[in-house]
Design brief:
This protein has 127 residues and is an all-alpha fold. It has one domain (6-118). 68% of the residues lie in helices and 0% in strands. The chain has six helices and no strands.
Length: 127
Amino acid sequence: MLTVHPQHVTRFSAVAERNFEDHVLAHLREFFPQECDGRSEEDLRNLIRSGTRRAAAYGITKQDDTCIYITLTLLLGADFDTNPENGWAQAILAERRRLDPEELVNRLQKAAVDHLDATDEEITPKR
């Protein structure tokens, strides 16, 4: 019989988190090289960790959905979800109890694209 001790679970979790970070880091660098330019690996990993925590606070925990949330963080700023200038994001996130996390992320992503198009804003990271 296989016995899994709590320290094994902790170790597996740490490995999974690092693998997720590696995946998201590669994604950001591949698809958003300009936005990643000039940022250290540690800075990007901190953005990924912070974005993961913020996404989880909204019930967003699936890896693909979390990756989208982190991408929005890179493009719009670490506080895009609470910044008063982004009332559209706050309105969507206020619906988190009514919407499933995937729909929440899809709406955020669409609204972010619409926002960037409407403001004719070039995609550059906001810190």
